[in-house]
Every structure is written in structure tokens, then in C-alpha cells.
Amino acid sequence: MPVEFSGDEALRRYGRYAGEPSEEQLHRYFRFDDHDRGLISTRRGKHHQLAFALQLATLRFLGTFLPNPLDIPEVALTYVARQLDLPIHQGKLDRYAVGERRWDHQAQIREMYGYKPFSDPPEVLGLVRFLYARARLTAESPSVLFDLATARLVERKVLLPGVTTLTRLIARVCDRAEERLWRDLARQPNASQRANLDALLQVPEGAHVSPLERLRKPPTSVTPKGLMGALKRVEAVRLVGVQGVDLAAFPEPRLAALARSGMRAKAQALRRMTSDRRLATLLVTVHRLEAEALDDALTVFDSLLTDLFNRIDRRADEGRLDTLPSLEEAALRTHRLAVAFLQTLEDERRDFEAFIRSVLALVPREQLQQAVDTIQGLTRPRRDTHIENLLERYGYVQPFVPLLLNTVGFEAGHSGRPTLAAIRALRSLERRKRIATDEVPLDVVRGGWEKVIERGEGELHRPAYTLCVLENMQSALKRRDLYVPASGKFGDPRMKLLSGRAWEALKSLSGKSRSEWGDLPPDDEAGDQLDKSHVMACLFLPPNQKSSESIEPTVAHLHNPATWGMTLRITRWRQRCCLRRFLRDMRCQCVLFCDFATACGVVTTIQYQMPLFLSTEDWHSNDNPFKHCTQHFAVVTVGTTERNGEGNAFGIGQKVALGS
């Protein structure tokens, strides 16, 4: 397979000057120490000394010699000449550039400074192994490998070869690594699985596209029919039968790159590939398709319920506007009654009989009863109205419920176990007509559903229970209390945490477990470990978000500024930072390993992503701690690590781990 180098401009600059060196580069590569000056001074003739120095500086800067040793920027030539106090005789230098002395100087420089030719067997073998390991384990482009190879050769004092030599070597190494990857992947499926994969490229009679192209097509409509199509897509991917193939031994970047090519390539292009490459591409693509199909199906499910709830609320609001005249008339009659009652309270005699006569004179008994009935009918709790309207739309969601429950394999954390139990119970009730309320878990039945969940005589109202479970399922998926192991977007968030040896190595740095921290006073100087500074971290929540609830990880646009916040004090230790105090509604506690040179913050659970408000304060200072505060809104997640703080300018999330 031909390997393309995207950086044509970089290849043209290879082994030559691409503009004038900067001041820093001049100081680093073109400045000579006493040893260099001693070697330069032994050359005969000042123009030979200058030319020798220029070739030495060029070798350090470029990693190779130039065909014309004087083809260097004017600023570099002037810098070297002034540093060595040598004159620039252009005529003599021009004769040097075409003479034989330049070759002698190059050989002397290589010998004196330990530079090796590219043909040196140990260096070539080491470079090939280095490139093969990178090509095997990573998905770096040939241009990146070219830069890495150049840097390695310069670092090891190996003269750079010609650009064609190096690019061809990289191309051969990349081809060899890809061929081995394809061969190893093609051996993983059995004969039946290989036949199923090849069948994905065959266009059935009467069809216009191959099965693979149908599987790759995502759902396009947020309707019950669209959701059922998305769920059937998940089933079709599973029917290929390659989900049980273990690909854990293969490098993830290479698999991701292969899957991307499989998702983009047409069936005709895949059929023209070699057998190993075709099977490898199809295997990885279908293996990743289940997670993508589940993500699409659950996204449609969430959008479908959200749209349904919004339409119900809009219809309820429109209904309230239609009944506003009747409500105003009933309120006016009630107002007359209230005025008469207040006037009676001001009368010292407080004659109840007179009060009744005055009320009935203002509002007849029939009108008063009608006003009471009107107000009672039109001022029901909004939640009750929402549930009633939702029950009327049960036929809208009922068709996809069995397919959803049987297709998606839900799992749950501790907080989502009641919802998971309700889902499993609802799955077992399929095809049953009469169900008793004691046959299903009722822990999720709250928020007004308990009023309609029972028909009478202990019989379960199945539509109400189904809608209640679906509502809880949607909210639990957003919080990741409920997750789908095979999904990517809705998978288990705990899988991103450190575990095994990596966690044990990081955990050992804290010295104490979370239960042993206690309430550490700020003046505790035991072991001379306590520093004289602390950090105030205010975890801002949206105005409508309770502190005991978790925030959806995909939410990045929070209210700015928030109407209220929670303040935690973090005590800084020499080796670690530990939270001094926790609010009662925090789900878990954290150890924060960090360098305070980069602002770091704490979030409450692995599901929390929220803005941070940081400030520093000296223990012995009486100044306002928020005098020099820093406010930023980077989104972070506890338990994940951002390499070098990528994604934000403050290094947020650089080293954060959960306590044990």
C-alpha cells in the first residue's frame, strides 16, 4: 500500500535552512566553546577556519552537511564571523565551496565529534525497530514518523540520509506493520464468522446497497418507528456474530484508525482489498458498530422522550390559557367571599348568621359551589396534569418498549439499582394481562406516580408503571446511574478510573486512606507537613440543580454566574491535597494529587462536570481571600487524566483520582 507524506513543505525543508535562525537557535547551535575554538584555530587560513566553523554549526543545527557549505542565511554567517573575529572573504569562500578541502573538513568533524553515517548497521537496525514499534502501536501518520525519525537521528549523532532514503524506509516499515496487523486480525474470526463478514459486502438481489452500508447508516428520525429501526440495527450487527472475538491484545489507536477507514470505504473498495486486509477491516468495523448503534439508539430514545414531555407540557399550558376566563370568574366570586369574611372579622359582634346572609346576598349558593368546583378542577398540581396527559399518550411509546428492553443490556451502579430492578421486572411482564402490585418493585414509583399505579384490589396499572419506569430510565441514563456496558457514550463511567497496579501506585502516594483523614485543622504542623496556604473551590451548580443530584457529563454550558455555590476547603500537604470538610450530600470524597503551580480543582463525583472558582489565601493573611481570585469554566471529570492538561489552559483534570 503506498504511504503518503502530507507535509510536502516539510520534506522540501528537510536538510536545509528554512529561513533565518532565531536568536535562541543562534545561541544554542552557532555558539562555540573553548574546545570548539581550539579545533577551529588549527585550520590553516582564516577563511578555512570560518568555513570549518560554518560546517560544524550547520551539522549541529540540521543534522547533516550541505552540498554547498556556504548556502546558509546571512545572519548565521555574520554571527559566526563576529564571534570568532574572522573576516569574510567571499572570493576565498566561493573557491572553498567547490574545492576538495570541504570534504576533508567534514570527515574531520565526524571523527572529532563522534558522528556516524546513516549506513552504520546498529543505528539503522535501531531506527527500524523504533519506527516499527511506533507504527505497530500507534496510528501516527508517516509525516509524524518522519519527524520522529529525524529527531532520533539528530539526537544520536547520525548523519541524516537523503529525503528519499528516509521516506522509503518509513513507507516500508509502515507497510510491514500494517500487513502484520491485518494478518493477525484476519486470524481471529473462525470460518463461520469470516463467511458472515464477507457476506456483508454482497448486494442482495433486488437491493441497491450492501448489508454493510445499511448497518453503517445511522437513524435519521426521532419517532417510535425511527427508534425501532435503530434497535433493529443493533440486532442486525449482533447477528454477524463477531462480538465475542477478543481484540484486547491489539493496540487501540490502530483499531480506531482501521474502524474509521471501514466506516468510510465503499463496499466496492473493500471487495478489491487483499483477503487479510478486507477481513481485518470488516472485523474491527463491525466490532465497533455495536457500540455506535447502541449510542444512536439510546440518543434517539432520550430525544424521543424529551420531545414527548415537552409537547405534553406545551399542551397543558395551552389548556390553562383556554380555561383562564372560567378561572377568573370563579376567582372573582371567591374574592367577594373573602372580602365579606374579612369585614366580619373587623366587626366586634361577629354575627355568624349575619355573615352567612351577607355572603349569600353577594354570591348565591349555587354560584359559590360552582366557583369551588371550577377552582378545584382548574388548579390541579402540574405534576398530576403531566402524568394524566402522559397516560393518554401511552399508545405512542408502547410499540418500542418490548424491543428496547430486550435489545439493550442495562446495568447499574449503586444509585441505579432500583431502576434496573424495575426494568428487569417490566421485561418479565411481557404478554401478561393481570399483574399484582406486589409482583414488581415499587421503589421508583414516586413523584405523583403512586396515585395512579394501582387500579384497585392490588392490580397494577401497567401503562402507568411502564411510563414511570421509562421516565426513571431516561434520568438515570443521563446521570450514568444506569449504563450500557456495550455502549460507548452511555457506558460505565467507572471504567475510565485508574485500577489495578496503576491505582495502587498512585494510591500509595497519599499515605492515608480516606477514612483516616479526619478533620485536619489548619494549624496542624505534625511532621512539618502542613503548608501555609489553602485553596477555596466553589463548585457552582445551575440555579435549578440540587446539590444532591448529578449533572449530565455532556452539559458544558452552565449558568454564568451561578446563583449559589458550595464551598469546600482543601488543605494542602507537601505530598498531597486532601479535602478538609465535605458536605453531607457529597456522594464520594476525593484525593487530589497536583502541583499548585497549575490551578487544580475538585468535583464531587465521577459524573460531575461544572465550572470552578479558585482563589488562594495565606493562613496568616487578613486580606480578603477572594481579592485575587481566578474564575474559569473548564469542564473536568474526577478519575480521568488529561495528558499535560490538554483541553484547557489551567491544567484542570491533570491528576485527579477517587479515594478508596
Automatic annotation (TrEMBL):
Residues 9-173 form the DUF4158 domain. InterPro entries: DUF4158. Keywords: Plasmid. It comes from the Bacteria. This is DUF4158 domain-containing protein. The lineage of its organism: Bacteria, Thermotogati, Deinococcota, Deinococci, Deinococcales.
